[in-house]
Amino acid sequence: MDMRPVTVALVEDEPEVLAAIAKVIRASPRLHLLQTSSTALDVMRWLAKNPVDVLLVDLGLPDRPGTDVIRLCRSLQPKCEIMVLSTFGDAYHMLQAFEAGARGYLLKNGTEDELATHVLSLHAGGAPMSPMIASQLLSRWQEGARKPPVPVARSDRKIDALSPRELEVLQLVARGCTYSETATHLKISVTTVQAHVRNIYGKLDVHNKAEALYEARQLGLLD
Description:
Radius of gyration: 19 Å
Number of strands: 5
Largest sheet: 5 strands, parallel
Helix content: 40-55%
Number of helices: 10
């Protein structure tokens, strides 16, 4: 019987979430965390040179979609098991992830307590999923669907319009500017920038920068 710890790589752009997940993995004697990354490019470079048993992927990464990481890992390391850890619980993202090569899909809320168990289950041949994801997958299977839903056209999306200033803030953040740099560029305070960002999140119905940038691109607000 192989008693070697299951090796794990993690890519997550939110520092607090990354730290929490890493803490859970490190606390398990049966798991060994080899790599943590905050961008798709960083983990993709790492995967090209380092074998790993399990890859945990956030879909809303700042530089490239998490599905790109999944596809590359599946190509480079066919034996690596891949599980999504995401705030995206909709059918579109779920099907995109599974089609790219993921075999597990957990929503971030409420997964930490049992995360180690889920990682070990995945490595042993299981397919851990949050109940909401499993329910959607079952419904899609029962309906006989074969393709992910087409994203709603921009003209059909019902969202509150961003103000010209909010669009300026969004564009600068998308270019990688910090709040301080954005404030300097627009000649406003950092506090005002933070207020604009909160308004942007509310209008786009998102919870972090990666989700905001993804949603803005889907709506045609960014190039």
